[in-house]
Amino acid sequence: MILNPKFPLYLPGVKNDSNDNVSIIGANLREDITTLGYFVSGNGGLEIKIQNKYFTKEYGSFTEILKKFIQDNQLENVKRLGIAVPGPVLNGKSSPARLGWNLDVEEYKRDLGFEKVDMLNDLEASAYGMGLLEDADLDPIYTSGHLENGNVAILAPGNGLGEAGYFFDGKYLRPFATEGGHSEFSPRTNVEVEFYQFLNNLYGIVSWENVLSKGGLFNIYRFLRDVKRHPEPEWLADRFANGNFVEELYKAAVEEDVLICKIALDTFLEFLAREANNLTLKLKATGGLFISGDIPQTIADYINKDKFYEKFKISDKMEEMLRNIPIYLNRNPNTALNGAALYTAYYQE
């Protein structure tokens, strides 16, 4: 994997020969599946040698998974560790609510002998990982042109709602994390006010993550079923009970033409366009918008690109700016893993 020139990332260590041929473990920690990879750096890029997945809840700590990965693959003297976590990182520590673990980079240096350990929010890691994307990984929603100079926004609904950005300093893109997914959701129409009240009874404070995530998609679906009384086929309830909710909802909408599922996906995508608009305006992301995450990647073929764009650019006064922003869907599921490894390979102050 080599750096894509469309992403002029600030990685000063790329020019340092001491960062070539370095062994690295990258890790993407998630509440369902944690993915680890063994990488070797070189020529300003990375080569992945091994990649394994582990069911997160079967382990009591990240250290257990890390030791198993090292043992399973008979790895020795690995120099660096890069970790992507679903939550904020402060002073090399993180306690992601979705994991229930306390993570500390100093612990991994001390106990496992890594010479360098870096821990990033998973969307910040994804922002670095997008620097390794091939053009084929980027599906244009609005434009097939190149990225313009300017800040860039990243929106990624999955188990939670990840939001991040790149600051463009005039030469390089510098990724940064946000916790914007926890900002408050606001309704626009009368039906959305009903939906808000439904969520308010469940959560109190209603965040965008309560709407744009796997749990959020379920919230939309059960509002349509329980409040708006759209019928749910009995066979579909059985599929939900025994399968992956997002995948089963998508298949029911596309293959069986189930109305409640189509309305749920349409509603989700309208909210996604609206929050993409919010994030783009807040970051003044004239350089582009990237949609990533499990849900958009799963339902990619359902997305009506023209309709998404029309919903995205609605604004009180900023439509002229919004209509010129390129929008891409990232179809690569490993950007956080690759980005954590890339950062620890080449980022140096």
Describe it.
Belongs to the bacterial glucokinase family. InterPro entries: ATPase_NBD, Glucokinase. The chain is an alpha/beta fold. It folds into 2 domains: 17-130, ATPase, nucleotide binding domain (Nucleotidyltransferase, domain 5), CATH 3.30.420.40; 135-331, Hexokinase, domain 1 (3-Layer(aba) Sandwich). Helix 6 packs antiparallel against helix 7, helix 7 packs across helix 8 and helix 8 (259-283) packs across helix 10. It is built from 12 helices and 13 strands. Helix content is 36%, strand content 21%. It has a 6-stranded mixed sheet, sandwiched between helices. It has a 5-stranded mixed sheet with strand order 3-2-1-4-7, with helices on both faces. A two-stranded antiparallel sheet has the order 5-6. The longest helix is centred in the last third of the chain and has 25 residues, at 259-283. It is globular. Strand 1 (23-28) and strand 2 (33-42) form a beta hairpin.
What are the SSEs and their pairings?
Elements: E1 23-28, E2 33-42, E3 45-55, H1 62-72, E4 80-85, E5 93-94, E6 103-104, H2 105-112, E7 116-121, H3 122-129, E8 138-140, E9 152-157, E10 161-168, E11 173-177, H4 190-203, H5 214-226, H6 234-242, H7 245-254, H8 259-283, E12 288-291, H9 294-298, H10 305-312, H11 319-322, E13 327-330, H12 335-346
Parallel strand pairs: 1-4, 4-7, 9-12, 12-13
Antiparallel strand pairs: 1-2, 2-3, 5-6, 8-13, 9-10, 10-11
Family: Belongs to the bacterial glucokinase family.
GO biological process, one term: glycolytic process
Protein name: Glucokinase
